[in-house]
Amino acid sequence: AQRVTQPEKLLSVFKGAPVELKCNYSYSGSPELFWYVQYSRQRLQLLLRHISRESIKGFTADLNKGETSFHLKKPFAQEEDSAMYYCALSGRGSQGNLIFGKGTKLSVKP
Amino acid sequence: KAGVTQTPRYLIKTRGQQVTLSCSPISGHRSVSWYQQTPGQGLQFLFEYFSETQRNKGNFPGRFSGRQFSNSRSEMNVSTLELGDSALYLCASSPGDREAQYFGPGTRLLVL
Fold it and tell me: Mind telling me how many Å the CA of B100 is from chain A's nearest CA?
């Protein structure tokens, strides 16, 4: 079964500390993986996708097929990074179905 | 380009009523997906439309239905509303399969 697991509901770090939001997936094949972010009172928006291999707002994520993980990392957290983060998977033939994890709420304290 | 828009933004209905939600995708996007978001279940896929055809459907009862028009605008309908249908309903559009989806602000439905 296709599944996305985000083991932490809440992650609290201090400003300037490194942050890693974990995402593990279950999928037999080559998935497309995404990170979405939802800031307070804003819509869900794409942060990054593994195929583009970009760094957005200082965040990076590497797809580890051996560990079936797609963890989101940032070396120095900022207060404006506080938000809800969702990892999502799109499988072959998914036809518009993104499978989301339950999300991790990141709180960056001053 | 203008983003995905959804109307109305808020709705209050009573049990047994029906409701229709509307979504306008980003110009040029032909795929429109709908999701239900609740605190307990998170984001769950309802269905997806592409060129006026439903291509995929999630695990929801037949009370949930949708359609897409020739201009790619989409509507979803929920009949015989139940208390458990209270949720944020999100619409997302995409240029194609396995591409990123771009979300609207959602319609918050409260069923009393």
Answer: 7
